Amino acid sequence: MNNIVGLLFIILFGGAGLISIFAIVNLVLPAPVERARLALETSLGRSLLLGVVNFLFAGVVGVVLALPIRAGGIVAGVFVFLIALIALAVVAFILFGLVAISSMLGGRMGETKSPVAAHVRGGGLLLLACLTPYFGWFVFTPLVLWTALGAAIQTVFRKKEKVTE
Known about the structure:
By secondary structure, the chain is an all-alpha fold. It is built from six helices and no strands. The longest helix has 36 residues, at 73-108.
């Protein structure tokens, strides 16, 4: 019984912390989040495909970099550092994409007075959907993470469109 209560506290406070991170990232970087949201709204399938391909590519690069770790010494340390750097970059891109997804969901749920309210509603909905047993864990969560990764990659690496007047 104690484990269940602890797990509920972790989910409750972890979810609240994640939703607050979504709001903070949107307040600090509003223009890139809006571009990522636009990328999601215009090309959701492209974001998913781009996210899957880049996730698999990062995994393959991580496995290839993990092969020389058996040698030990400073060489192993360098390869572990590179693997950690790639993993950190993927997590940062996913977090950035999740901010855009929560903003999009919160905006679609109805008009809000502030972007923070949109993130609270969208992030709460996203969190509850990902916590749904079985389907949310094994189908919805990976799809959302891959889509978030693809949207963030599109936002960061896409050329800005020139405005013609």
